[in-house]
Specification:
60s Ribosomal Protein L30, Chain: A; Alpha/beta knot; 2 domains; six-stranded parallel sheet; 11 helices; 35% helix; elongated
Length: 259
Amino acid sequence: MKHLSLTSIVSQDNPIIRATSALSEAHGRKKQGLFLVEGKRACETFLATKKFELVHLFIMHEHEVWGKALDVDDQLILVSLPVMNKISTAATPPGIVAVFKIPNKVTPPETPRSGIVLAQVSDPGNMGTLIRSAASFNQAIFVVEGVDIWSPKTIQASAGTVALAQIYQTKWEDVVAYAEKTGVTLTALVVADGTSLEQLPQKPRLLVVGNEAHGLPDAWINNCNEKVTLAMPGGTESLNAAVAGSIALYLISKELFTK
């Protein structure tokens, strides 16, 4: 395998660097159709799936051997520390930043899938954590409004598992139509007055998790087939959305581990 000399950029005013820096914001990602992935592990995860088109891979000198071993010479760019600081969104830049094309949205399958509906989840940390949990349990993910899944903070919080997850970006009415068509049960996760998950029969479900501050709109709860609440014998009022959603999703998917 032959490697050519790497392209090198040392100026923060380089057009490629300015364009890449704009990807930290939603309007920049929408305009360019691109997103950022930072760090060695997350970049390796995205590259390994071969589902995402790599546009640029920026590395600092200490990662040059690693970068060359990937055989992506045409996309590999060596950058200085000031340039890495400009394109990275991390407080401590990892020295590796990749730019990928945002893939086309995909439609849900015709068959019922168990999984989670992230409905108006606004915090990228919660979004990323819930995506990571769903990917770990091999559960489908329906995203309705809320924070951009291609945000660097969302991808970081997911530990790169956005690349592995089955994600469908859609509208609430389309989720309801999918449930009606396939027979999958819509299960709203609510703070109080819901049924205990342990009491429900095992069957394909979509767990619906709402906004951190306001929960699910009443109309959306009414669209659901059932409501569930996590028991909290310790007396706390509620759990963080990511924690509650992850626990509930595990309980819903536990049949995968008991068959």
